[in-house]
Amino acid sequence: MSQGVTLDRVSMRFGSFTAVDDVSLDIRPGEFFSFLGPSGCGKTTILRLISGFSEPTSGQVLIGGKDMRGVGANKRPTAMIFQNLALFPLMSVAENIAFGLEVRGLSRTERRRKADELLDLIALPGIGDRAVAELSGGQRQRVAIARALAVEPTVLLLDEPLSALDLKLRQHMRTELRAIQKRTGVTFIYITHDQGEALTMSDRVAVMSQGRIEQVGAPQEIYESPETAFAAGFVGETNAFPGIVHAADSEMAVIDTKLGQLRARNCAGLSGGEAAVVFVRPERLLPADDGILVRVREKTFEGSFIRVVGEGQDGVPVVAQITNAGDLPDLRIGSETRLRFHPRQAVALRPAPHG
Amino acid sequence: MAELSRRLGGPIAALAVAAVAIWLVLLVALPDLLMIDYSLRPNLPPSEIGGPQDVHSLANYAVLWSNKIHLGIFFRTIWASSLVTVITLVVCYPVAFYLAKVAKPSNAALLVLLLIIPFWINEILRTFAWYIVLAYNGPLNRVLTGLGIMARPIRWYGTAGVMVGMVYAYILFMVFPLTNAMESLDRNQIDAARDLGASRWRIHRRIVIPHAKPGIATGCVMTFMLAAGSYAVPSLLGSPSSRWFTEIIYNWFFEGGNWNLGAAYAFLLLLLCIVFIAVMMRLFRVSLADIAR
């Protein structure tokens, strides 16, 4: 079973510092939902508000439609996986997994049976009697997941649980987590500052900055159509060309930049005379006969593509990733080349309020 | 030794080692050896010391077992010291948990200071203070009768007085080992247990207490040994019915004039306390390595 989570105008203040600022959000039952943002953006605070370790200063947290105010962490239908996993070192693996069942008064044999079942689910059968200290990083990870799933939560909260693993294991665990989520159907709420994790695993992602939600959407949606300058810059690599709106309609905008007039989709409702930034992904810049004039500063051959770091007019940095289709232009360092992009593959947004 | 002489130079290193050796031998080992020797010899008039009757035997150690009164006081001392230990643990556990895991660092520092300041005063003086507080016409009885909690004053001197005095005297010996042990507990462990549905009581029983066990053992051993070996508190706050074994040892030395028997009693107290602690440690599955940690 799974339940949705609703945040209704939730704010959390610590003294004069606002960690979470008026956040409203619906997380659907059975969804893999990620909060993505830099450290200090308030994502961990949101997780603690949902789990019940803290109560919001204002606003409501609802789980399965029920208001959770006054319901302690031990009474909520959530389970949390901590960043450092917080396995109990003095208990065996099976005791760890069955701790939540012990709390619920299940008999010893019943607990053991359930623990063995969960060990099968996480593909670690027969390690129930081992000590936590004997396990490898990846095994601990999975034991922590089993311990959380043992209490049959309707919502599973994960606080950057992969950050302590090495790269290879981390990538393996991404698929694993996604598979466990699919198998159990539990709502997963995942906190991370790693966009790769958020994009590959999630059904939907909320991009956060300074206590506010910048954008909520499917990973591809956020990548293709960022709604704020922060979201555009934080999720994936991008070029940013600042300028002033020359003309705009509901569809497209023309921006005067140092690189000349650039056309892009007008997603933010810009109008003439406003400051704006044109965002273009590096892989959307293509070699052309006309377009932006770029002097090549660095060039990296990556096999399937070539990465070019260059400088446009007035030293504006430009990064391009050109697919190796067998007809790569001659891009010597110091040489000049022209790059262009399709206006529908670029977005014009208001500049970020803070730098 | 080689490391020491490399750091300090030969002569200074030799001096430091000699000083430690002299201190250990002269002030620790020798008096104890002397007392062991005393305890093994009969109590003889000066003229017969070194004579044919002055032979080593365990006779002094057998005396206690045939003296029902002394034996009773001995077991009472062990029992009362255990009680003091348990009460001190119960009193100190919440304080230690608050200091280690709940209080903000600045508050914790202030609280530690408040705990320590009274201990700047000599133990005898603090015990005298309790002597005054607990007196029949003293402030405690006045307040309690004045508030109508009790109809008439109570005689606190005796077991109650000794308990109060000792628990108070040994608080720090319990609080600090407990706090130390609890501080190393990862806060997330508590949160994780709570998140899995555990009540406060279960969190302490399954997470905090097992983690703090070495600290609890250290605090309990120290408190128990100090209580069993205490002299000032029972002689000031006690009554004839709450006599402590140390008072009997004192009497052998300074009133009976029998140092030999006094020394034997003292060693018996030490040995039996160690045995008692060893049994308790086995019972609660604490190893010596845990305590030394």
Automatic annotation (TrEMBL), chain A:
The highest taxon in the source lineage is: Bacteria
GO CC, sorted alphabetically, is: ATP-binding cassette (ABC) transporter complex
Record keyword Nucleotide-binding present: yes
- Domain (ABC transporter) spans 5-235
Q: What GO molecular function annotations does the UniProt record carry, in alphabetical order?
A: ATP binding; ATP hydrolysis activity; transmembrane transporter activity
Task: Keyword check for ATP-binding, yes or no.
Answer: yes
Q: Into which family does the record put it?
A: Belongs to the ABC transporter superfamily.
Name-wise, this protein is Spermidine/putrescine transport system ATP-binding protein
UniProtKB/TrEMBL annotation, chain B:
Say yes or no: keyword Cell membrane present.
yes
Swiss-Prot/TrEMBL keywords: Cell membrane, Membrane, Transmembrane, Transmembrane helix, Transport
What PROSITE patterns does the database record attribute to this sequence? ABC_TM1 (PS50928)
Per UniProt, residues of the ABC transmembrane type-1 domain are 74-280
Q: Where does this protein reside within or beyond the cell? A: Cell membrane
Among Pfam families, the record links this protein to: BPD_transp_1 (PF00528)
Q: Does the keyword Transmembrane apply?
A: yes
Its domain of life reads Bacteria
Provide the membrane topology annotation. Multi-pass membrane protein
Q: Name one GO biological process term.
A: transmembrane transport
Of the GO CC terms on this record, one is: plasma membrane
Membrane-spanning intervals of the chain: 12-36, 73-96, 108-134, 154-178, 215-233, 262-284
Into which family does the record put it?
Belongs to the binding-protein-dependent transport system permease family. CysTW subfamily.
Quote the protein name from its UniProt record.
Spermidine/putrescine transport system permease protein
Q: Which organism is it from?
A: Faunimonas pinastri
